[in-house]
Amino acid sequence: MHKIIGRNISILYRNEKNYADIKLKKYNLNKVQAEVLIFLKHENGANQTKINEFFLFNKATITKIISHLEKYDYVDRVISENDKREKDIYLTDKGRNILPIIKEILNEWEDIIINNIEDEDIEKVKCILAQMVDKITKLKEQE
After folding, report:
1. If you write DSSP's letter for every residue of the chain in order, what string do you get?
2. Is residue 79 assigned to a domain?
3. Which residues belong to any copy of the HTH marR-type domain (predicted)?
4. In this predicted structure, what is the pLDDT of residue 69?
5. Residue span of the structural domain in which 94 resides
6. Is the dihedral of CA 77, 81, 85, 88 positive or negative?
7. What is the rounded distance in angstroms from the CA atom of residue 99 to the CA atom of residue 22?
8. Rounded Cα distance, 53 and 97, in Å
């Protein structure tokens, strides 16, 4: 049973990533980079540590993502006023302007996979997945 859950989550993730990557390619973005931009919409000025804590990436991965976003002028890195060793990440105008397109693409995918599924079932799945993520987050914090 556990293998089935992981397998199904993996299949959904890979297909969502492929769908979004194709749609976002013309903007020099992929799904993961787009998700970081969405995070920054709500946490503009977050540093890489905060982004790492949210996504559970390793530091090298988030550095690569931020470098790419900076290269294409979606974000700026600014030395933190609180800690000169840290850089805060801010959306640029271009980064803010791409957000509606990203949301539309991700909503299209969600519409595809939840079509003809009852709202209450969708809410149950969201709650269960959130519980699973909470468990993983707690395990990561103990490492």
Report:
1. -HHHHHHHHHHHHHHHHHHHHHHHGGGT--HHHHHHHHHHHHSTT-BHHHHHHHHT--HHHHHHHHHHHHHTTSEEEEE-SS-TT-EEEEE-HHHHHHHHHHHHHHHHHHHHHHTT--HHHHHHHHHHHHHHHHHHHHHHHH-
2. yes
3. 1-134
4. 98
5. 2-116
6. negative
7. 16
8. 25
Residue type, 121: D
- Residue pair 33/42 in contact (Cβ under 8 Å)? The answer is no
Q: Is residue 139 part of a domain?
A: no
Q: Is residue 124's pLDDT more than 80? A: yes
Q: For residue 93, give both structure tokens.
A: 């105008």
pLDDT in tens, 5-14: 888 889 999 9
Model confidence over 16-71: pLDDT tens digits?
999 999 999 999 999 999 999 999 999 999 999 899 888 988 889 999 999 999 99
Question: Domain count of the chain?
Answer: 1
pLDDT at residue 2 tops 70: no
CATH number of residue 90's parent domain: 1.10.10.10
